[in-house]
Structure formats: structure tokens, C-alpha cells
Design brief:
The structure is a homodimer.
Chain A: H1 33-47, H2 52-62, H3 72-87, E1 91-100, E2 103-113, E3 117-118, E4 143-144, E5 149-157, H4 163-171, E6 180-184, H5 192-199, E7 204-208, H6 211-214, E8 236-237, E9 275-278, H7 280-288, E10 315-323, E11 326-336, E12 341-351, H8 359-381, E13 388-395, H9 398-401, H10 403-411, H11 413-419, E14 420-425, E15 431-438, H12 443-450, H13 462-473, H14 477-485, H15 500-507, E16 511-519, H16 532-538, H17 544-562, H18 571-604, H19 606-609, H20 632-656, H21 668-678, E17 699-701, E18 709-711, H22 713-720, H23 724-756
Parallel strand pairs in A: 4-8, 5-6, 6-7, 7-9, 12-13, 12-14, 14-16
Antiparallel strand pairs in A: 1-11, 2-3, 2-10, 5-10, 11-13, 15-16, 17-18
Helix pairs in contact in A: 1-8, 1-17, 2-8, 8-17, 10-15, 13-14, 18-20, 18-22, 20-23, 21-23, 22-23
């Protein structure tokens, strides 16, 4: 489900200078000297097992036919996966849920004036690509969870369709009220586009793939190259997932057979206006028929036309009608039971459903997971007994709305709260650099793992390569200094876009999301061309990055499963939160200054004086003057967290000194229980404003970005919305969550101090 | 000749707060209270005279037929202008020069592999645009001063063809040795493209107009809109004017009948490789035939293709052959003799030649000049007697190489050195904001003038509108503060691109270049579509900005001609030079840091580690470590200049106090003589390294930018070229010029102190 355009790896993952080696007294954090030695041996054995050839054959099988939610091959794949897990020796079963998943019955996009053009809405098969011709089984091109509708209205081009684009339109004197908007993909998660359009009064929304973003402007198109061909369409969900993901009818609870369900008409996450995605082949006549102001420079795509904004004279007819029946999800869950602590779980997941054949998304991330499971089966036969229970999940229904993971996490929430040590996710996998996002209490841990994995292209460790990339990409000398000298390379905070969301942001499980990327590229995302032929021609063709991902995640899972003490580390988290606090404080100042400056310019007449009388231009609206916020509670909370984290770190160093025998004491169990609660302490019971499902006070997807993370989301978004009283409330709520987390760390430190004494 | 794409007016022209009014004791700088009152009256009378209708009729006549150098209508226009000046009552004559101006006899651009395509090289007439069909008289599409050549070679796309683009190509492993390059217009003056291509071993150069820069990407194309149509071509000179402008055969001296001439084969400013310009209609098949690496993101234009770099498989045949005979220039020179100081000259010019019909370039700037001259004729009849001589010039041959102005300035250099008070230039004129560049000793003067001119669209003064634009465009709070609070808005430093160059940079006359712009736009620059129909449909259609330009420049000329003391002001210049000094010091530090950082990354292996093995990538070359420079001589010279400027300002305030009777003393003549030498003191006898014709030590066109200015050019370009010993020499040379200028100011201050005592 994640976007295929490669983000700049602002700071990748890796370890800085060799001089900054981890804990000097223990080779592996949380292990005794003795247990670390055994662990190293098992991990080395593990990493020799994953096989590119196996992954290739799994991908061929899993992507052989379209396998979206509700399709025969989706269930078939689930059963095949179940059989594989069992054949590897794992204890596996399928859990089902019944969820609302609309599939289209009627679709139309037509230009009705000034000329007539009927959009094709169809991706043609490509000779030499066998699965592209499986039209009978393919889902049509559509956006799932679009409300049914049939509208005809003038067209307006809204660029990416994010709030800033509508501010620009207002300056141009263009309103979308009563109009159908056409937005291009990218610039936000797609579900934001109809949401913001509807907020501004639009009656319909068309989303198209501009060739500038993932078509011919980027390179040769499929099948000659990896990029999006003229008729390629990006399917995808447009549900309002920033409110809650999962089944729209069962928010907060598992969509079991007898769950209480909302009526469809009351489901708040279905769009307010009809939406359809189209190709650039279908978009060109619509865009070319627009008049009105020429689109601002940065709104212009790569079609050979003058991009104009409208409204009209292009009038468009848009129609969507779906089958709104429930469909069954098949989550495949496999376990390696823990020998010592069976009620402590390390969970690892990747989804198995796709929009069509989905070789890249998600099969490229699923096949390493299968090889990890196969390897564990072999290690168990050789005598490996993981301390904790390992839970492997192949989720169904990620594409429509993180359905399989969300319903499972909601159904098992109570267990997860007490048992889960960590959730490790992957999704699509490509070539290049290890890209990690997640809970910063696991930052040092995953840096340590990354030092042990070899990059297949350069033969450097994957952390060394990521470090060199971070040096190359840093925007200034400070960034380069940090990439070179910080003990750990930073990991990203997580927003949304894959199955980690319910674990991290709803239940409060420490989470990591991992994948390789940054090299190559393509434009087959969510189209019929994302298939075995494409992936094995243009992406990780030899599956060496598939193997590297299995080695990375598998090593991480084993190490988390076997550590005497769960290897969370909090000083890095404290430093990161302190950075976020500085960011929101700066944002508040800048927002206030911006309001003051704009109001001053309105007083000076800047906007009227600089308007070209031949061009439409409307001065911006005046904002009420902003007031200052009291950040003291947040800053105090960060200070308290920092002190607690440092205390824990001192106690940890002492406990792990001299072979770390203390870590093996039976009392360590209680410490581990405290640690498992620490991420959960960052949740608030009432959740974020207007979206209580999202409870994490540090990480959330943005209400107006969709995938993109907002850190300290309650505070940050209140400031962005210029809601100063809410900002004050959210400062208090965030400080409270940090204080609860700080208490957990202090408790853990105390337990650790006793252990070491 | 200037580019038509509107530059961002980083800081326009205008006066800041009303609180910062100029000299409180005298209403007009350099005038006694009494002379100021008379001056105000004459200026008000003057500004009532220029008539939009007259300008429209002049434009219709002057642009009625193609009038390039050597054409019948060029001479016809000169004679018509002469007659106009005479009819206004001015003393006018034509001065001729004989210069090398090649015109094409044979031209070919053909794709010869992998398929065949013959470029049209022809701009079609447009129905409803009468002058576009005058094909018999139009110069073909070509680049003047391209050497003759006939080459066939693989094609390489080089973006704008500036040095940084070749560094990028090297990183991609692409060489242009033996290739024909295709570069797009913009990003530098066009003559830089073949120069840099030849330096890198290319054998030919094609320059095309990408629709992204001035075609359909910007808006509707001609005749539906103002932008460049598919077959529109930008003609233009590619002579190496950063070495010297003017006749290639007579550097430094006027190209009079019996001037000593270089053989054509030894003229250093003719290109080293053949060059032709083409339309985007002709360019598309060539670019589409390229393979090799996909062009970097920022190199991609608006054609609906994948932009690739090559080399090949596209092979191109390029042929150019010209008639290299001498042609005659007709400079039209008119005078209003000075009543009191006939040997002090205020010179005002605009060229009259065009590439084809040239309604915008240059007639839109010439017709205000004509109205200024007509108005002076009327004022003289009413009894106005300018103190100094006013010289009005309509230059020929600006388009090929600033021929008419350069030859005239070279021929009259001795007179200019002693007599010239200032040179005021204009070229094309459009709508929007007063845009001023020039000598900073005239910054306050022209700010004062701009406060007296009304903007036709907003009815604000043109300086107020420019100030509000500067506030709107400022990139940060410091920029806005400066725009709001600095006594004068900054004027730009001048590079090249119009007839001011010989006056300012070769002879050392204080100079201003003025025009309105910043609104509207178009893509007819140097094509057959730059004509009366286009201008009166899309540009300053009611000629109100023509009138505003006549009012601005005419007022400035009158004020300079009548002031008792020439109104130079040096504190603003000193502050500006101090800013330039800080810039070059920062540049030296940044260049050194960049070299160190790149060498460090080479040592670390960053470039090899971050290379995608499937993409071509070559690590950059290692630079020798940079050394520190001694800027003390420059900083000391700036301090000395600042002290002298402040001393002069104190003396000036005293002299102008209480009615300023001191200014009217006969001894003021000697002070004026000193002041006239002050700009010239900034010249060095030996000129800039490798281009002795350019003698100004503060302002020059960049050796690798062409139009774009380099301030403190000797120092700045040595640093850019990493030539540290030359940088040291140039710091000394620049400091020496500043010291000479400081001496002149101190002499003037002394004279003024005596005058006031």
C-alpha cells in the first residue's frame, strides 16, 4: 500500500562512527555474555537460510492471479500460505473477519462539454505479460469506499488537492463549490483529495496519474521500461483512514461474525462525494478542455498541454455505484511458541492481499517473511528454542483499509496490551537502502541489527551504506555532522500506509516498519502491471534484497524473542521527543509571525498593489491575531523523560556489566513486564481530537496528509489549524502521556537497579 | 535584446518610509531652493506631454517592416528618426560605422539516424498578423557570429548548457567530445552555450526553445495567446561578448571607414563551433530520438516525451554558412545643447534595430525616447534652457553585439571621459514595475525620481508600487525589513544585454538602465511574431507604461541636466560595495568548505556507495585543497570608501542647507568636473583578466553568464574558478580601484567643504 515513488532518505538507518560501538560490556543489548554468544550462533545460522530462488517461486505462485479481498485467489493464497507455515513446522491457522468492502458495479467519467469524450477506465493487456490479460478476475479501476453518486458539473483542476492548493485557488478567485475537481496523484495520500474537495463544496473528485510523477517524464513506460503507461491507473482506497482504519462498520472492535455493526449510511469514513481514478490517457482531454487561469508553475504536469485551472468550460459526468456487501478476510497467523516466556509475543506481519496481482505490493515484502518462517522451522529442528513466542501474520485486506491487521489487533487488543513486545512490519520491498520507521525506543536496537546485515550491491553493511547515503543527502553541515557522529542514525517516525498503524497507534505496541528502497522506480503501483513479469524485469530481479530483508527482519525478530531483557533504549527517544517539542514551538512562532506579517501586508495594501489587473487575484483572508502558547508543561515533561531515560541507561549499563549475569535473574521477568507497558503509556484514553481511535500522543498520520506522520500530533495539528485553545489542551495531554511513559521508565529503572545490586 | 521572461524583482525600486525623505534642506538634491522650484515646474510641464497615441503611431511605423542591421528598412528607420528629431527642434545627425555582421546563406539541421527528419527552420506567417508574412525581408532563423561549419555527429542534451550542467553530465559518465549538443534557451545568455560546449569538445551546438520556458506550458501560444508557438524560433547573437562586445574586427576602437581591422579568421569573439537555433517543433523529433540516461528531474522540459541525455543513437547533421561582409550602422544622434555647461553631457539611448519587426524589442523602449525628445523640443520653445547638453541616441546594431553603442562609445571615448555626467538606457518596455539597474552612486537620485512618477495601473507612485512588490517578494523577515525601512530601495547591479555596457564597463560613465516589467509575458522574443499586432494585443496595449517610462527617464534626464551639482550620492554605493565584499568573502569560505567536504566524501567512499549499479555514475574529480585568501586590502578599501562617502554627505548637507546658495557658486563647476571622474576611477587600465576591454572593477557581465552580472568581478570569478593566486591579485586590483574612487570622493568633499564655507 505504500507509495512507490522513492522518498529521499533524509537520514537512513545505520550506525555512525566505529568509535561509537554499543554497550562495551555486553555484545548484544539485553543479553548476558553467555546468552549473547549462543544468540550470535543461531543468528548466523538463520541468515544462511533465506533463498532468492524460494522467494522467486513464492512470488510466482502468490501473484499468479488477481487476489484482492473477496476474490477466489485471495482465499486460495491464504490457504496456500497456511499450508506453507504448517509445512515449515509452525503452528498456523486462519482467522476470518467480515468487513464492508465495496466493489464497483457502474463507473463513468465523461467530458460532456465543450466536446464529448468518454474515458476508457480500462487498462489494456500487454503482449508478453501473461497476467495482464486476466481481465475477468481483475478489479476494475476504482477508488474503494467512494460513496455512490452520479453528478455532472464544471471541472476544476486542483493540483494535488491538499489544503494549500485550495488557498492558492482562492487567491485566483476560483471556487470548487458545485464543481467536480480533478486532482493528480501524489502530494498527499489519495484519500485526502476527496475529503478536502468535499470540505470545499465540490460534488465529485477525479484523481489521475500525471506522467510527470510516475509516467514518461520519469523514464521509459511499461513494457519498455518500469514507468506508468498511458492507460495505467492507480487503484486505491479513499476511506477517511485518518479518522480510523479498518472496517468502517465496526470501529474499535473486531469485525467478527456477530460484532455490532453501524449501518453503511452512518459509517463516517466513507467519502462524502463520488471519486474515480483515471489514467493520463483519459485525463488529457479533460485537462485540455479547461480554461480559466493558467495553473501556477508548480502545478504543471508533463502532458504536452497548457495546464489551466477552470472552472469549465469543461463539464464532466462522473458516476460510481458499488456492491456494498460484506466480504470475508483471511488472516493467516502462525506461531513459534516461546520456551521460557510463551506469553510474551514478538509479532511480525506483511499483508497478502493486493489490488490486482500485486507482485511488488505486497508480495515482494511477503516472500521474505515466508523465508524467515521457513528458516525458524529449520532452526527449531536444529534445537533452537526461542525464549518468547513469535507470531507471524499474513494479513488480508490491507489495501482497502488495513482491514486484516486492524480487525485482528482490535479483536486481540487485550492480549496485545499485556503480551506484545514489538510488532515488525514490512510491505513492498525494492532495491537500495534499508529504510526504517518506528518507535524510537527501538532505534538503537535496529541500528545494531543493521550493522550485522550485508548490502548485496556494495557488500558494505546495510547501516554503513545508509550512513553514507545520509551524508550524501544531508542538506547542510549540521546534517552531515549528525550523520557522521551520532551514535545511531535516526529512524523515521511512522504515520500510516501499512499494517503497523493499529499496533502502534491504537494499541500502543512498540513497532518497526522495514524495507529496502531508494533505487530504481516505477509506475505500476496499484495497476494490473504490478505483476511477476514487471517485478522480475525491473525491480529486485535476483531477490537479493528480498534475502537482505529476510535477514534483517528475521535477525531482529530472533533477537527480540531471545533477549533476557527487552532491548528498548530511551535516551534516543527522549532526545527525539525533545527535537519534536522544539519543532512545534518553532511552528507556533512561525505561524504567529506569518499571521502578523500577512495582516500587516493587508494593511499596507501589498496584495492589491501587486495584483496584475489583467489576471484574477484576490487578497487572502485576514486571520485573527495569534496568541502565544504555554509550552512549559511539554518542556518539563521532556526534561523528566530525559532524566528517567538517563537513569535507566545507567542502571542498564551496570546490570549488563561483567557478563551481565544480573539480566538472567528470575526477577527480570517483572522488569520485562514493565518495559512492555512503556509504549502503551504514551497513549491517551480519549485519543486525538475528533479521532479517538488514534491514541498515541507522539506519532499519528496527519489528518490532512493521510500517510505522512505528524509527531506530537495533538499539539502540531492544533497549531497548524490555528486553534490556540486546543493547542493548549493538547500540550497538557501530551505532557501527561509523556509523564506516564516517564513513570514506566522510572519503574523499570528501579527494577533494574535492584536487579544489578 | 534583453530576455523577455520576467525576473523576480528581488528588490525593485522605490523609497521606503515617508520618514526617510531625502535631504530636508533642499527639495531636490543638487539644486538650490530657487533652482529646484523652477525645475519642479519644468518637470511637471514635461510629464504632461508624452502621448500614448504618438507612441502607438511611432511603433506602427518603426515596426512595419523587418529592420535588422544592413536591411533597407533599418536605414529607412534611421532616416525617419533623424527627421523626427529635427522636426522636434533638436540638432540631429546620423553617424555611421562599418562592422562585421554575418547573415546566413546556408542552414541545415537534420536527424540522420536512427530515423531521418529534416528541421523546418522556418516560422510560418499567421493569418491576421500582417507583418508575419514579410518573408522576403525577414532574416532567417540563425545565431549571428556562429562560425561556418558542416558537421555530423551524435547528439547530447545538455540542459541549459552552463558549466554546472557539464559537471552533472560527467557524473553521468557522458562526454560531449565530438558530439553536437542540444541546449535549451534560458539559464544563461545564449552565447555561453556554444562557448562552454566548445570548451568541452563538442563540434556543434543547437539551441532550442522548450515550451516549458516560453511556450505552451506558460500559457496560450500566439496568436491565441502571447506565448511561443510550435515553430517560433529565438534568433540572437552568440558572439563571445563577455570578452568584448561591438565589431569583432575593431576591439577598443570605433569601426570607422579607415579603422584598422583584424582579419575575420583572427576575430576572437566568433564562436569556435557552428550554432543554430530551432523551434520546439523542430526539436521534438531530435530529443525523442535520444537514449542514454534519463535527464535529471530539473532538466526536463514540457514536451510530452521522456527527456534523455544521449549520446545518440540520434545523429545530427548541422550546417551553417554565412555572408561575412561588412554592413553599415546608422546611429541617430540628437542634441539639446547645454546653456551653461555645454561640455557636460547627459546621454540617453535606446536601440532602433531589431531581429525582425521588433515591436517589443526594441521599439517599445524607443518610442518613449522619441516622446521625451519631442517634449524637450516643446519645452525649449517655451523657454527651457537645460544647463548641460542632452544627447539622445537611437543606436543601430544592438541585437548582433551592441554594435552601434559600442562603436560610438569607443569612437568618442576621450570626450565621454571628460564630458559625460551619466548614460541612461532603456530597451524593451512592458507592464508592471519600474526595474532599475545601474551605478549605485545614482541609487538615491533615481529613487527620488521614481517617487514623482505615477503608476498607471494602481495610481500609486512607481516607487511605492515597487516597494510593495519588494515586500511581497522578500524571502525572509530581514528582506522585508529592508524593503520597508531602508531609505532607498536597492537598484540592481548591471551585467550586460543592452547598450549601457560600453558606457559603464568600458568608458566608466555613471549609468542607469530603466524599464517597466513584471506583468504579462510572452514567447515572441527575437521571432517574426514580435510585431505591432502582438504588442498591441498582449503587452502595453494602451501605451500607458510607454508614457510612464518617458516620464521617468525624461524627468531623470532633465534633473541631471539641470542640477547645480550633479546629484551623485556615495554612502549607498559604499554600503553596497561592502555587501559585495561580504558576499565574495562568504563565497571563498563556502567554496573552500565545499572542496573539503567533497574530498572527504571521496575518502569515505560516499559516491561509490550511493551509486545504483544499474545507473551510470562516476564520482566527481578531486580538487586540490583550497587555501585562505587575504581580504584585508579589500576590507580596508571599503572602510576608506565609507569614510569618504560620509564626509562627502556631511559636506553636501551643509552646502545645500538654507537654500543652498553655495551650490550656485562658479566654483561648483570644478566640483562637477571632479564628480564626473568618480565613476571612471573605478576602472583599471588593464581591465579584467583575459578580457581587458572590461575595465570596471565593480560591475561586469559574467564570463560564464553573459548577461548576468558579477559584482567585484575579478575577485568573484577567480574564486568561482578556484584560481586562488588570481583571486589575491584581483583583491589588490579591486582595492586599488576603490582607493582611486575614494580619492575622487575626498577631493569632491574638499571642494564642497570649501564651497559651503
Amino acid at each position: 500500500m505504500r507509495l512507490t515513488v522513492r522518498p529521499t532518505l533524509a537520514l537512513g538507518l545505520g550506525i555512525g562512527l566505529l568509535a561509537f560501538a554499543p554497550t562495551s560490556t555486553g555484545d548484544l543489548r539485553g543479553f548476558t555474555a553467555e546468552s549473547a554468544k549462543a544468540q550470535r550462533d543461531w543468528e548466523a545460522k538463520f541468515r544462511a537460510i533465506p533463498s532468492p530462488d524460494s522467494m522467486r517461486s513464492y512470488m510466482r505462485r502468490l501473484s499468479a492471479r488477481p487476489h484482492h479481498v473477496g476474490s477466489p485467489y485471495d482465499k486460495d493464497n491464504a490457504e496456500w500460505l497456511l499450508a506453507r507455515f504448517k509445512s515449515f513446522g509452525l503452528d498456523a491457522r486462519i482467522e476470518t473477519f467480515d468487513v464492508l468492502f465495496p466493489t464497483p458495479k457502474e463507473r463513468a467519467v465523461e467530458l460532456v462539454a465543450p466536446t464529448r469524450f468518454v474515458a476508457k477506465l480500462q487498462e489494456p493487456p500487454i503482449p508478453g505479460d501473461p497476467t495482464s490479460s486476466q481481465q475477468a478476475e481483475q478489479l476494475p479501476t476504482y477508488n474503494a469506499y467512494s460513496i455512490d453518486g452520479d453528478v455532472t458539473a464544471p471541472l476544476v483542476y486542483v493540483n494535488y488537492g491538499v489544503p494549500a492548493d485550495y488557498e492558492r485557488l482562492e487567491r485566483l478567485g476560483v471556487s470548487v463549490k458545485g464543481a467536480i475537481v480533478i486532482a493528480r496523484y501524489f502530494g498527499s495520500w489519495r484519500g485526502i483529495k476527496p475529503k478536502v474537495a468535499a470540505e470545499h463544496g465540490a460534488v465529485g473528485c477525479i484523481i489521475y496519474s500525471d506522467p510527470r510523477d510516475d509516467g514518461y517524464a520519469q523514464g521509459e513506460v511499461y513494457p519498455q521500461g518500469p514507468w506508468r503507461p498511458k492507460d495505467g491507473v492507480q487503484r486505491g482506497s479513499v476511506m477517511d483512514m485518518p479518522v480510523y482504519p479498518g472496517d468502517p462498520l465496526t470501529p474499535g472492535v473486531g469485525a467478527t461474525k456477530d460484532a455490532k455493526r453501524l449501518p453503511v449510511s452512518e459509517a463516517p469514513t466513507i467519502t462524502k462525494i463520488p471519486v474515480l481514478p483515471i489514467s493520463y490517457g483519459d485525463a488529457q482531454p479533460l485537462l485540455a478542455a479547461l480554461r480559466g487561469p493558467v495553473a501556477p508553475q508548480e502545478w504543471r504536469g508533463a502532458l504536452g498541454i497548457t495546464y489551466r485551472v477552470g472552472p469549465g468550460p469543461a463539464r464532466v459526468h462522473l458516476k460510481v455505484k458499488s456492491d456494498w456487501s460484506l466480504k470475508t478476510l483471511y488472516d493467516v497467523i502462525a506461531r513459534v511458541p516461546g520456551a521460557t516466556a510463551p506469553d510474551e509475543w514478538v509479532i511480525r506481519g506483511n499483508h497478502h492481499d493486493a489490488w490486482v496481482n500485486g507482485a511488488e505490493d505486497p508480495i515482494s515484502g511477503l516472500v521474505p517473511l515466508l523465508e524467515e518462517a521457513r528458516a525458524y522451522g529449520e532452526l527449531v529442528k536444529q534445537g533452537w528454542k526461542p525464549r518468547r513466542t513469535i507470531v507471524y501474520a499474513a494479513w488480508d485486506g490491507e489495501e482497502p483499509a488495513l482491514l486484516g491487521s486492524t480487525e485482528w489487533a482490535e479483536a486481540h487488543a487485550d492480549e496485545l496490551v499485556t503480551k506484545a513486545v514489538a510488532y515488525l512490519n514490512s510491505d513492498t520491498n525494492n532495491r537500495g537502502y534499508l529504510d526504517v520507521g518506528g518507535s524510537h525506543s527501538l532505534e538503537q536496537f535496529i541500528n545494531d541489527v543493521a550493522r550485522d546485515i550485508q548490502d548485496p550491491e556494495t557488500k558494505l553493511s546495510v547501516w554503513k551504506r545508509a550512513q553514507l547515503r545520509a551524508i550524501a543527502d544531508a542538506s547542510d553541515a549540521d546534517g552531515r555532522k549528525e550523520a557522521r557522529e551520532r551514535a545511531n542514525l535516526r529512524i523515521d517516525a511512522l504515520g500510516s500506509g501499512s499494517d503497523f498503524t493499529p499496533f502502534l497507534q491504537h494499541v500502543g505496541v512498540a513497532t518497526l516498519n522495514l524495507g529496502f528502497g531508494g533505487e530504481g522506480g516505477g509506475g505500476i503501483y496499484h495497476s494490473i502491471y504490478d505483476d511477476f513479469k514487471w517485478y522480475t524485469t525491473f525491480d529486485d530481479t535476483s531477490f537479493v534484497y528480498g534475502r537482505a530483508l529476510a535477514q534483517t527482519v528475521g535477525t531482529a525478530v530472533m533477537r527480540l524473542a531471545d533477549a533476557d531483557i527487552v532491548p528498548y533504549q530511551f535516551t534516543g527517544f527522549a532526545e527525539t521527543v525533545s527535537k519534536y517539542a522544539k519543532e512545534v514551538e518553532k511552528l507556533a512562532t512561525e505561524t504567529r509571525d506569518k499571521i502578523d506579517e500577512r495582516n500587516r501586508q493587508l494593511d499596507e495594501g501589498v496584495f492589491t498593489a501587486t495584483a496584475d489587473p489583467r489576471e484574477p487575484s484576490v487578497p487572502p483572508a485576514r486571520d485573527p491575531a495569534a496568541r502565544r502558547l504555554n509550552f512549559a508543561p511539554l518542556d518539563d515533561a521532556v526534561d523528566g523523560l530525559t532524566r528517567a531515560a538517563e537513569r535507566y541507561e545507567r542502571a542498564f549499563a551496570k546490570a549488563q556489566a561483567d557478563g551481565g549475569a544480573a539480566l538472567a535473574k528470575p526477577e527480570a521477568q517483572a522488569l520485562n513486564a514493565t518495559l512492555r507497558q512503556s509504549e502503551g503509556a504514551l497513549l491517551s484514553a480519549s485519543g486525538l481530537p475528533r479521532r479517538p481511535w488514534y491514541r498515541h500522543q507522539i506519532y499519528a498520520p496527519g489528518f490532512y496528509t493521510g500517510y505522512g506522520v505528524k509527531t506530537l500530533p495533538g499539539v502540531r495539528e492544533a497549531i497548524e489549524q490555528k486553534n490556540w485553545s486546543e493547542a493548549d489542551q493538547q500540550i497538557a495531554a501530551t505532557a501527561q502521556a509523556l509523564a506516564a511513559h516517564t513513570n514506566a521508565i522510572n519503574r523499570a529503572a528501579e527494577q533494574l537497579e535492584k536487579l544489578g545490586s
